[in-house]
Amino acid sequence: MKRWIASLVIGLIPLFALAANDSPEQITRKVSDDVLAIIKSNEKDPTKVRDLVDARVAPLADYTRMTALAVGRYWRTATPEQQQALTREFRTMLVRTYLSALTVYKNAEVEVKGSRPGAGDDEQSVRTEVSLPGQKPIPVDFSFERTRQGWKVFDISVDGISFIVNNRNQFSAVIRKDGVDGLIKLLADRNNALKNGAAAK
C-alpha cells in the first residue's frame, strides 16, 4: 500500500507550483484537492489525465535539483549530457509512476496536519496523512524550498522514508556497478516498461 501512496504523492510534485505565492500548507491543501478531483473525473480517460499532468510538469518543479539529490555525489562527475539525460528520465519516471497509480487512489483522502521549518532557512515541511476508506492513514511529508519562482517541492517522505534518499541508495548501487550510463539505461528501460504497460490497458 505504501508504494502506491508514494506513487500518488510523487505525482503531486509537478502541480505544487500552481499557486506559488501561497504558503506551502495552502499549496498542499489546494493541489491535493485538485489532483483528487482530476482522478475522479477522468478515471476512464487516462490519455486526458496524462495530458493534464504533462502540461504542468516542465515549468513547475526543479527536477534538476531533485535528480541531483537522488544521484548524490555522482552528479558532480557526470557530464552535462549525462545530467540532462538523468533529469529527463527521472522526471519521466515520476510522472509515469504517478499515472500508473491513479486508478488505485481515486478514493484517497489527503488531510493536511500542519507545517514546520525545514533544514534550511528557505525550506518548510508540510505534514499530511493519506488514506483509503477503512485503512490506517499513512503519514506523508512534503519538503518545500523557496525559489525565485515561489515555493516548490524537492522531496517527499512516506511513513518516514525519503523518496530522494531511497532512490539515492538504489541509484548509487547501479552507478557503482554500471556507471552513470548504466543508470540512465535502467531508468529509460523502466519508463518504457511503464509506457508499454499503460498502452496495453
Automatic annotation (TrEMBL):
Keywords: Signal. Residues 1-19 form the signal peptide. The lineage of its organism: Bacteria, Pseudomonadati, Pseudomonadota, Betaproteobacteria, Neisseriales. This is ABC transporter substrate-binding protein. It holds the Pfam family MlaC. InterPro entries: MlaC/ttg2D. It comes from Chitiniphilus eburneus.
